[in-house]
Design a protein that fits this description.
The complex is a heterodimer.
Chain A lengths: L4 E4 L2 E3 L2 E3 L4 E2 L2 E2 L4 E3 L2 E3 L5 E3 L7 H9 L9 E3 L5 H4 L2 H8 L4 E4 L1 H11 L4 E4 L5 E4 L2 E7 L9 E5 L4 E3 L15 H4 L4 H12 L3 H14 L5 E3 L10 H13 L3 E8 L5 H15 L3 E6 L5 H10 E7 L2 E2 L2 E2 L1 H12 L6 E8 L5 H11 L3 E2 L4 E4 L4 H22 L2
Helix pairs in contact in A: 6-8, 6-10, 7-8, 9-13, 10-11
Chain B lengths: L3 E2 L5 E2 L36 E2 L2
Antiparallel strand pairs in B: 1-2, 1-3
The chains are: A alpha/beta, B little secondary structure.
């Protein structure tokens, strides 16, 4: 049960907290998440977004604390992903299947694909305005932020933006607003950006420019996950501007895995080399860190070294998992180097370099390969690789 | 002729066109009809970016 939270006059957050979820389609969320839905009441009652299907009853019960759910006149669906659309069938059944369901053009198409049925879709596009009772809503399509159907709903009189997944965070707790939680929320917002939105950074830049031109004077941002930005919405907008620019930071990351600790020794030597150049570095073992945490660190790093042993003529499977994930999120402006131990064939470094090339990362050194176990001179080569990487990063960042 | 990429990952390659949607191979990006949208996600042409 979630006590409905009043966020403005006759406007409530009626969503649900999912305390138990840890794996969000492969993204690790240690504090669970919320599925936010919003109820606007007045002459007409409008529900903005719903929740994951297994929380349908809880959503209805939350709404019921404010109004009889049957009195909902319309639903706005900003995003069709099932954590937000999953309760649409149950809600529509409850309120009347013929009630209008506002969504984007792709939203109508996607809702049909999800639920295999038609609703009374009212398709809206950027700039469209709809007045329902004494409330006005306008819409902004945010295509591929992060699905083709994604859109924002804006209430111009209240100056409240319902931003769908944008500006969200996977956080379930006892705080509901930015001013209650303070900076503690930012690591969650950053991880969310790195894992959900990073590859759409050019679209984020375009969207922020469009929104700036509109002079909206946003008072509050209500995302579909996590806390509501009511005190200082510009804080998250500024952060999105920074993250989407993908400027390299003066820090390095060493990502590695190992079979018999040889690549571990190499990774530590690379790390020492980087540190000797006064560049901050983090060493991340892919079997100790979740891919989504590694991804968050990749976003902020300017240099990335990846170490993999060669297993059966290929790279180590866990490294392949992490790299596939990273590659899909398209982090840009990185410099990179590879290393790894091998027994007889030693393909890993070559494969890693190919991955870097495909990601358009700048390779600063051909990499270091060591047969079986590194000796002192091998470890020196690894140390030097770290030095080369750190120097290249400093040079890149120097004005 | 330049290729253009949709935010969803689809790349319009003029040498291939988009036969499923009536676009002949050899049709330059600039010559696509205004009604042509991304065959995967439905994005309009304004969302595409030139592949460098």
């Amino acid at each position: 049960m979630f006590k409905p939270i009043q966020i403005a006059d006759k406007l409530y957050s009626v969503g649900c907290r999912d305390w138990d979820i840890r794996d969000f389609h492969g993204y690790y969320i240690p504090e669970g998440t919320t599925y936010n839905a919003f109820l606007v009441t007045g002459e007409k009652n409008i529900l903005i977004d719903t929740v994951k299907s297994n929380f349908s009853d809880e959503l209805l019960s939350n709404i019921n604390r404010i109004i009889d759910p049957k009195k909902i006149d319309a639903v706005i669906s900003n995003h069709t992903e099932m954590d937000h659309s999953g309760s649409i069938p149950k809600i529509m059944h409850k309120i009347g299947e013929d009630k209008p369901l506002y969504c984007s053009k792709m939203g109508a198409q996607n809702l049909k694909s999800h639920f295999n049925r038609e609703y009374n879709f009212q398709v809206v596009g950027s700039g469209d305005t709809v007045t329902l009772g004494n409330r006005t809503f306008s819409f902004l399509e945010t295509r591929m932020l992060h699905w083709p159907d994604s859109m924002f709903t804006w209430m111009p009189d209240e100056k409240i933006l319902f931003s769908s997944d944008a500006f969200g965070q996977h956080y379930a707790g006892d705080k509901f607003f930015d001013d209650e939680i303070g900076d503690e929320i930012m690591p969650h917002a950053r991880k969310y950006y790195a894992n959900i939105l990073l590859h759409f950074s050019p679209r984020v830049q375009a969207l922020l420019a469009d929104v700036a031109k509109m002079n909206l004077d946003i008072r509050m941002i209500c995302p579909d996950h996590g806390i509501i930005w009511r005190k200082n919405p510009s804080k998250i907008i500024t952060a999105y501007d920074r993250w989407s620019r993908q400027q390299p930071g003066k820090k390095a990351l060493v990502i590695f895995d190992s079979m018999w600790e040889s690549t571990t020794k190499m990774a530590r030597a690379v790390t020492s080399g980087i540190e000797s150049e006064d560049v901050g570095v983090r060493l991340m073992n892919t079997r100790k860190w979740h891919r989504s945490d590694i991804m968050t660190e990749v976003m902020g790093a300017g240099a990335v070294a990846v170490g993999s042993p060669t297993l059966n003529n290929g790279i180590f499977p866990v490294i392949a998992d992490v790299l596939t994930y990273i590659k899909g999120l398209r982090p840009q402006n990185k410099i990179a180097a590879a290393f790894g131990s091998y027994g007889w064939s030693g393909e890993a470094v070559k494969i890693l370099n190919k991955e870097f090339e495909e990601m358009k990362w700048q390779i600063v050194d051909g990499g270091v390969k060591v047969v079986y176990v590194p000796d002192e001179s091998d470890l020196e080569r690894c140390f030097d690789l770290g030095v080369t990487l750190a120097k290249a990063l400093k040079e890149k960042l120097s004005p | 002729m330049d290729k253009y990429e949709c935010p969803c990952g689809y790349v319009y390659d003029p040498t291939e066109g988009d036969m499923d949607n009536g676009i002949e191979p050899g049709t330059a990006w600039e010559d696509l009809p205004d009604s042509w949208v991304c065959p995967l996600c439905g994005a309009e042409q304004e969302y595409f970016e030139k592949v460098e």
